[in-house]
Amino acid sequence: MNLPELHEMSIAESSDLIRAQQLSPVELTQAYLDRIEALNANLGAFITVMGESALAQARTAEAEISSGRYRGPMHGIPVAVKDIISTRGVLTSAGSKVLAGNIPDHDSTLIERLDNAGAPLLGKLNLSEFAIGGTIDHPYGTPRNPWNTGHSAGGSSSGSGVAASAGLAAGTLGSDTGGSVRGPSSFCGIVGIRPTYGRVTRHGVVPMCWQMDTIGPMTRTVKDCALMLQVIAGRDDRDSSSSNEPVPDYASDLNESIGGMRVGLPREMFDFTDLDDEVKTSVETAVSVFGELGVTSDEITLPTSAQSGAVFVSIADVDCASFHSEWLKTRGEDYDWSTRTRLESATLTPATVYIRAQRARELIRRELLQALDRYDVIVLPSSPTASPPIAHATGSPGGYYQGRVDLGRRRYTSPAALAGLPAISVPCGFTAGGLPVGMQIIGRPFAESTLFRVAHAYEQATVWHTRRPAV
């Protein structure tokens, strides 16, 4: 088996070969490290590459498996994580000069769980500064979309999307506060899930907004996403917001029929003028595939959710600004212009606006839960557009992250975030220019298994997941 084949294999495929001792975890890890060395300078996915320690972990995995101590499907599978996740003795920069010297003395629970699963850690991934989005000058290099390096990889889990899409890691972890897993997944043509709030621990993670931050896997297939979530999900006593809800076997019923399920299609999310025609057509075509699989779909209305962009910013940015208040006073010059401007603006938000946004948030949550009482899932675009050019995808005046454009794109991902619901993005097509399009599926609280079943059924009925960027 030659190296180019290795980085194209899914986690599930590699895992089966590793368990059967037909593939060496060391060989697989080296294949990814070779690919990182060849491509990362152009793609900007990694901030820190942990080659020596990853190979040491791979050798340990190989020895354990050879002696009959197989830990599970992630044993020997090389992964990488967003650089807001603390790693003992290794830079955790949050993509900012502010934390350029931050070497934690502890691992995040997420790192511990990946290590316990036997997954070698390839390194730490690039991102929008402090996971906020809209960064103009990335201090560790600009992440570039592997489908077209002149285009954005999305934010804020940019490097996580690039690494998974371009085969620089078997799977990655990103964070999603208002769409930072689903956006890059859509732009980079991969699968990414925002779990239910509380499903995954955030111990040892640099926060953006305590009320909405989540950690989620980003992979090339739905099954791989399920396998990664299995490892990191579950209660953590070091994170009081983590849930005691039992964690099911996410991969066990992926192949069960979804016939008889009901899908709600929010009319507002398909009628906005900022929704690109190619994106709309791709998602509507995907809905027709559900029909062929025995799923019924109905148009629904989510009028409050359609205004969720402004509600999200009014809450998340204020929470974020409170975390950064001291650094803004003493280290302001170390922030990217866009980040600093957004945080300083948030400090001026009146308390009355913040409280009204919290009330609106509850209305949005109630609206979505009422819809999910009648429907198994809600389907809508992951983003109103495919990936924009990098020059237009920043927080600079007139950029993608400014004003009406920003609030418009946020209305697609903010509802699930505000409601604390799980949501997955799955590839559903490409534009005429060859850029990926993502479909978003929102589910009931802790119904990640349902999302995986629905997304997997669609994935297996289509070919989009088989396409790879030519890098």
Task: Describe the protein in words.
The protein folds into 2 domains: 230 residues, Amidase signature (AS) domain (Amidase signature (AS) enzymes), CATH 3.90.1300; 205 residues, Amidase signature (AS) enzymes, CATH 3.90.1300. The chain is 41% helix and 13% strand. The chain has 15 helices and 11 strands. The protein has an 11-stranded mixed sheet, with helices on both faces. Strand 2, helix 5 and strand 3 form a beta-alpha-beta unit. Helix 3 runs antiparallel to helix 4, helix 8 runs antiparallel to helix 15 and helix 11 packs across helix 13. It is globular, with a radius of gyration of 20 Å.
Question: Helix count, per DSSP?
Answer: 15
Structural class: alpha/beta
Sequence of secondary-structure elements: HHHEHEHEHEHEEHEHHEHHHEHEEH
CATH top level of the largest domain is: Alpha Beta
The helix content, as a percent range, equals 40-55%
Topology-level CATH name of the largest domain? Amidase signature (AS) enzymes
Record the strand order, biggest sheet.
1-3-2-4-6-5-10-11-9-7-8
How far apart are the termini?
20 Å
| Unreliable residue stretches | none
Tell me the Rg in angstroms: 20 Å
Give structural attributes.
11-stranded mixed β-sheet, globular, Amidase signature (AS) enzymes, 11 strands, 15 helices, 2 domains, 471 residues, alpha/beta
